[in-house]
Amino acid sequence: MGAADPPAWIVLGRSGDGVVAVELDQSGDERDRHRLPASGLAEWVADEESSWSPRWVWNDTPPWYGGLLARGVRVGRCHDLRLSHAILRGSALVSPDAAVRSAVGWDASPYVEPDPEAPGLFDLEDAKPPAGTPVDVDAALAEFASQREAIAESTDPGRLRLLTAAESAGALIAVELRAAGLPWDAAEHDRILTETLGERRTGGAQPALLAAAAARVREALGDPAVSLDSQPKLLRALHRVGVLVDSTSRWELAEQRHPVIQPLLEYKKLSRLLSANGWAWLDEWVHDGRFRPVYVPGGVVTGRWASSGGGALQLPRQLREAVRADPGWSLVVADVAQLEPRVLAAMSGDHALAAAARGRDLYAGIVDSGAVATRQEAKIALLGAMYGATTGESGRLVPRLRRTYPRAMSLVDDAARIGEDGGLVSTWLGRTTALPSAEWSVMQSQATQVEASGADETRARRSARDRGRFTRNFIVQGTAAEWALAWLADLRARLAALPAVPLADAAPRSGPVFARQAHLAFFLHDEVIVHAPQEQAEAAAQAVTDAAATAGRILFGEFPIDFPLDVRVADTALKA
DNA sequence: TACTGGTGCGCG
DNA sequence: AAAGCGCGCACCAGTA
User: Fold this and answer.
1) Judging by beta carbons within 10 Å of its beta carbon (0-12, 13-18, 19+), is residue A504 exposed, middle or buried?
2) Nearest nucleotide, CA A252 to C1'
3) pLDDT the model gives residue A112
4) E strands, A270-309, where?
5) Is the CATH code 1.10.287 the one for domain A1-180?
6) Regarding the domain delimited by A339-480, which CATH topology (the fold level of the hierarchy) does it fall under?
7) Domain map of chain A by residue range?
8) pLDDT at residue number A204
9) Long-range contacts of A398-407 (CB under 8 A, 24+ apart)
10) In angstroms, how far is C14 C1' from A233 CA?
11) A351-392 per-position pLDDT tens digit
């Protein structure tokens, strides 16, 4: 039937200084092969994309798509061989002897850092492909065939198709996010810094308010020269004035009563702002009104995205006012309320927890169920259950949840026990933990030998519990990341389908393809920011909401769990 | 001078 | 030292 199948994929590979493109049909049979000069790639891709929207298959998204996007070419769908390989190779759903597991070289260097000095985008010509990934088209074809086979013969092809598609969509989005950037008002950032720290000083001198806080600390310590940035020196200075703390961390200091505490906490806060997101950060990371972080899809073991450079995933709330829409544009800022517990309810099929989650506030629902007395207790108990708390208030409250939500709790408890025993656990769509390290396994088996010391046993036990807490959380955090990918991917498609606002007026352009159209501008685990022309802001907000509902159905079908969003349309990303 | 490990803190 | 998960980054101290 191969000849009758419509084309489905185009696999791209490099050949000398050109590109080879191979069209495959649904069965994976080759239909056509094109040889293109690298300089003609963008135009050719744009033609194919507009005529039949193929799914583009390539070894690594950033160099391919970065180059296309820089030339104004957007694509709808892709299959990222590197990211999909990482998922399939480790997935417990894939057969142990699948060919995809035996590929060599792929895992040696999962990600090539882009040169932070390089202006603009990644590009094909100067990109170093990740070591071991299939660069030429026949290698890419072979790898793609192994991946399709691994999925087709897995215990759940549907889930793995969904996961690799979502992961690949994420790869496209990460490149687009970098290209678009987060609208950033440097003047507003400067205003916040000046108001908080004092005027910027040249030559490395501390701004006035920071210097004043430092002076008050040194005064209270009775030592005009002590270094406040050296932990050992500060600790000794504190001990000298009778503040007998074991660390200089904020929460421990906050429990002490001494004149040095208040100014020291103030100093730490200001100092942190200056060193992490001060003027140096602004100079390095914000250009032409955009902050362009490097997102790293799949960069976290659980499947969450990581980031590289600029601390994109750690922007302090203090600076949210500097995130500001262009004139004539708005920001749609949306986050999911209590994503992880909702995901836990759905994946465990716990109707009681799902019922508590109905409506806006899941924690209030837990209080209503009678499991605990206050919202704060509900939050602490649930986080404790998902993270594996054993002591303190959290550890004390978790057993109450076990009685009220036995299905949800046994899912995470089982995951913890499997992890402690050295086993593997998987997310809802099939991303699986790595095997424990050889050292870990040796430690565990040695601890059971007769000659093992008590210390050996204690160490092994603690390490087993550490792994149990990891696997316990992995299934929830990882499935939440899958939900978020599905949300993003569907949202991206909805935004792209909005009619572009005509360029006739003088309002500036934005976005990855230089159109006056709503586009994703930021993503942080359970939150998105969309930058939209004002005329489109309401439609974009609706798209964000609709995409969340779709993501819930894609992952969990008709299971009655909802994912309510907090959505705001405003000029800045400031939270209410 | 370049590295590694520890500490602390920002985010979810 | 957060009571318990996952990160990135700045800074210091010790070592090579």
Assistant:
1) exposed
2) C1
3) 42
4) 286-287, 290-291, 294-296, 306-308
5) no
6) DNA polymerase; domain 1 (1.10.150)
7) 1-180, 186-288, 339-480
8) 79
9) A400/A371, A400/A372, A401/A366, A401/A371, A401/A372, A403/A371, A404/A352, A404/A366, A404/A369, A404/A370, A404/A371, A405/A345, A405/A350, A405/A352, A405/A353, A405/A356, A405/A371, A406/A350, A407/A348, A407/A349, A407/A350, A407/A352, A407/A353
10) 15
11) 999 999 998 799 999 999 999 999 999 999 999 999 999 988
Burial of A479 (0-12, 13-18, 19+ CB in 10 A): buried
Report the distance from CA of residue A547 to the C1' of nucleotide C13 in Å, as an integer.
Answer: 50
Q: Give the pLDDT of residue A452.
A: 80
Torsion angles phi and psi, residue A183, rounded to 5: -60, 125
A77: which strand partners? A55
Strand C closer than 7 Å to the CB of A316?
no
Which CATH number is A186-288's, of 3.40.1390.30, 3.10.350.10, 1.20.1060.10, 3.30.210.10?
Answer: 1.20.1060.10
pLDDT tens, A386-437? 999 998 889 899 999 999 999 999 999 999 999 999 999 999 999 999 999 8
Residue with tokens 């090539």: A112
User: A58 in helix, strand or coil?
Assistant: strand
CB A326 within 8 A of CB A510: yes
Alpha-carbon distance of A289 to A329, in angstroms, equals 13
Q: pLDDT at position A106, please?
A: 56
Q: Is the pTM of this model over 0.85?
A: yes
pLDDT of residue A131: 55
Task: Pinpoint the alpha helices (H) of A116-156.
Answer: 137-152
Model pLDDT, residue A109: 42
Structure tokens at A290: 């955009």
Neighbouring CB atoms inside 10 A of A159's CB total 21
Q: If you measure CA to C1', which residue is closest to nucleotide C8?
A: A311
Q: Give pLDDT < 70 ranges for chain A.
A: 1-5, 103-133, 503-515, 576
Give the list of residues 6+ apart from residue A316 with CB closer than 8 angstroms, or none.
A273, A276, A277
Q: Protein footprint on strand B: which nucleotides are under 7 Å from a CB?
A: 6-12
Listed in sequence order, the residues at least 6 apart from A287 whose beta carbon sits closer than 8 Å to its beta carbon are none
The pLDDT of residue A384: 95
Tell me: the pLDDT tens digits for A22-43? Answer: 999 999 999 999 999 999 999 9
The answer to whether A355 CB sits below 7 Å from nucleic acid chain C is: no
